[in-house]
Amino acid sequence: MSAPTSTITAVTPDGPEVAAAPAKRQRLRFVANPKAATGLIVLAFFSLIAIIGPWIAPFDPSQRSSDILQGPSGKHWFGTTHLGQDIFSQMLVGTRGVMFVGLLAGIVATALSVLIGVSSGFLGGAADEGLSALSNVFLVIPALPLIIIVASTIPGAGDLMVALVIGFTSWAWGARVLRAQTLSLRRRDYVEAARATGESTWRIITAEIMPNLTAIIASSFVGTVIFAIMSEITLAFIGISTISEWNWGTILFWAQSQQALAQGAWWWFVPAGLAIAILGTALSLINFGIDEFVSPRLRNAGHTKVKTNDGHSVRMRVGFTPVLGNKAVAPTPVVRKVDAA
Questions:
Q1: Nearest alpha carbon to residue 183 among 144, 140, 212, 142
Q2: Alpha helices in 33-77 (DSSP H)
Q3: Domains in the chain, start-ordered, CATH in brackets?
Q4: CA-to-CA distance for 135 and 143, rounded, in angstroms?
Q5: Greatest CA separation found in the chain?
Q6: Which residues form a coiled coil (predicted)?
Q7: Which residues neighbour 28 within 8 Å (Cβ) at sequence distance 6 or greater?
Q8: What does the alpha-carbon distance between residue 117 and residue 131 come to, in Å, rounded to a whole number?
Q9: Residues 95/113, Cβ–Cβ less than 8 Å
């Protein structure tokens, strides 16, 4: 029996609208997360400063003046150094180097980890053994000491060289994680179905495996960016990288070498320290948002309510198991029979 024409007309137009709403909510769920949104806003702010910072800096960061070790004022918002250099201009110009090294090192390390980790987990056999051995070698090598040795041996190592050194020495851990996840995905039904239909190996990797690793890759990228930024600042602070290029670590290097804390020049090192803390917090919030986006348990933590028998609501939280019980019932008195003598 065929369905009436009026029924088909009434149902069909509403179908795409009903299906589109959940898809739209799915795409916006990550941005709607307060942690992820806050982190993205702060990261976008620092990225904007990195682009336009040298153009809007009120002074040349290396220009000397007679305003020596002066606190924040209308002329010098963040004060001046022992040579009269404007610290606010140094912060604006130095943001570009920090963001450039962090993002480039994150891209290089993430690309290597994806290439080696996914290939190792999916191909198996001799390729898996060789790539796993390579990952293990880089995994046991201490990254920061190696970065210090390489950067100190290269004369005039700039931001590009430091970013490449950090990127080429920071991919092993991400590759191991991606390999383990790929090993669990390559035997799934949809992968076997794609293989049975004659799909090529790289087509299966890019279309079937990689979309399921997006959250892990994004989290690995954010973690690598944090490590790269901290490494760049550490290299500049201890004087390994060139101090002629301004970044936040260079500001801290000169503040420490000129004993700014002992002289009471708190404005020399506090802005750079706060900027490092804020940027690190923003990247961590993005990482937390990614975790909550891919994990329903974390995403719904604190939002699920269970009603008890007496009508009260208990909010479910991660790490806590509420015990749902009835109202307290008065104990029933026990009557003992006494035999008559």
A1: 212
A2: 34-56
A3: 12-294 (1.10.3720.10)
A4: 13
A5: 114
A6: none
A7: none
A8: 8
A9: no
Encoding tokens for residue 85?
Answer: 């250099």
How many Cα atoms within 13 Å fall on the side-chain side of residue 40?
10
Tell me the pLDDT tens digit for each residue of 24-75. 555 566 677 788 889 999 999 999 999 998 899 888 888 888 888 888 888 8
Query: How many CB atoms sit inside 10 A of residue 30's CB?
Result: 18
Q: Which one, of 256, 12, 213, lies nearest residue 115 by Cα?
A: 213
Q: How confident is the model at residue 315 (pLDDT cuts 50, 70, 90)?
A: low
DSSP annotation of 305 reads E
Judge contact between 255 and 11, C-beta under 8 A: no
Contact 74, 83 (CB under 8 A): no
Say which amino acid occupies 128: D
- Kindly state the tokens that stand for 207: 């279309």
**pLDDT per position as a tens digit, 299-308:** 555 455 656 5
Tokens in use for 42? 């702060």
Residue 4 CB neighbour total at 10 angstroms: 9
Number of separate helices (H) and strands (E) present in the chain: 14, 2
The pLDDT, as a whole number, for residue 3 is 47
Tell me how far the alpha carbon of residue 303 is from its chain's centroid. Answer: 24
CA separation for the pair 246, 294 (Å, rounded): 38
Asked if 257 and 237 touch (Cβ cutoff 8 Å), the reply is no
pTM of the model: 0.73
Alpha-carbon gap, residue 17 to 14, rounded angstroms: 5
